[in-house]
Amino acid sequence: MGIGSSALLVSAGVASGLAGSIAGLASLFSYPALLAAGLPPVAANVTNTVALFSNTVGTAAGSRTELRGQRARLLRLAAVAALGGAVGAALLLGTPSSAFEAVVPWLIALGSVLILVRDPLRRLVASRQRRDRTAAGPGHTARLTLPMAGAVLLVGLYGGYFGAASGVLMLAVLSLSASAGEPLPVTNAVKNIATGAANVTAAVAYVLVAPVHWGAAVALGLGAFAGSWVGPLIVRRLPETPLRIAIALAGLGLAFSLWHQGA
Questions:
Q1: Quick one: pLDDT at residue 172?
Q2: What single DSSP character describes residue 82?
Q3: Going by C-beta distance under 8 Å and a sequence separation of 6 or more, which residues neighbour residue 73?
Q4: CA distance 164 to 166
Q5: Residue 146's pLDDT is what?
Q6: Is the Cα torsion angle 221, 222, 227, 229 positive or negative in sign?
Q7: Main-chain dihedrals φ then ψ at residue 134, nearest 5 degrees
């Protein structure tokens, strides 16, 4: 891999870490960068999954305050999400590459649309929390109900298969099931661990049996770690809405471009 490709992937990794901090869409930067570096779609996807493990490490390190007291909840969620990630990895490895190439544009478009409607989802969650606040006592905690476990499993499966916008999907699931009045930063930190569990499980499978491009994974991972570590600090000082809309529109443009190429 040349210096130019390595620099592209490091830069894309930083952007991925920042995008993950803003909207949970790290793959919208990292995946197309891997394609631009010359990797075929399936190899790009598995390399992306392995590289973005560093994104999970960075966001977890930056959210230690929010994660205090969440150990039991994290263990339950991580176990279910990890199972979903394993199933998603098996699905990717067991289906033809042509099937993956056909579905990728639609997955990217879905992730982009979810980002655009994120704020209405948050308002819906806030409304639900206000209704539940009087009924929930001070000791009320979020429980892993069967419907929630099923939703976490499906998001984990999607994360293991592709992953773009899996953070947004997981945040929506966790927000709707969180204890009344739980601050969004706490829910977001828990989301990072849950999606990270699915990512790690899939990454282990890919390392063992899939065509991981290690040079690209290292370059992308270094950038993603840096971006995810400093992302929360930068995002607090930038207008979030224009950045989020720009990411969503870029994702829709990428989805259309990939769809057009495969048409």
A1: 78
A2: H
A3: 141, 142, 144, 190
A4: 6
A5: 86
A6: positive
A7: -70, -30
Give CA separation, 52 vs 138, 162, 226, in Å. 37, 12, 11
Q: Which residues of the chain have pLDDT under 70?
A: 23, 121-122, 125-126, 128-143, 178-181, 232, 235-236, 240, 263
Predicted confidence at residue 122, as pLDDT, reads 63
> Long-range contacts of range 232-240, CB-CB < 8 Å, 24 or more positions apart?
232/21, 232/62, 232/63, 234/18, 234/21, 235/18, 235/21, 235/22, 240/22
Token digits of residue 82:
């990890």
- What distance lies between CA 126 and its chain's CA centroid? 22
Give residue 177's pLDDT.
Answer: 72
pLDDT at 102: 83
Residue 105 confidence (pLDDT): 85
d(C-alpha 188, C-alpha 181), whole Å:
14
Instruction: Kindly state the DSSP code that residue 179 receives in the 8-state scheme.
Output: P
Contact 174, 191 (CB under 8 A): yes
The structure tokens 């040349």 sit at: 2
What per-residue confidence (pLDDT) applies to 205?
92
Expressed in angstroms, the distance from the first to the final Cα of the chain is 30
User: What does the buried/exposed string (b/e) look like for 32-63 if buried means 16 or more CB atoms within 10 Å of the residue's CB?
Assistant: bbbbebebebbbbbbbbbbbbbbbbbbbbebb
pTM over 0.70: yes
Phi/psi at 211 (nearest 5 deg)?
-80, 75
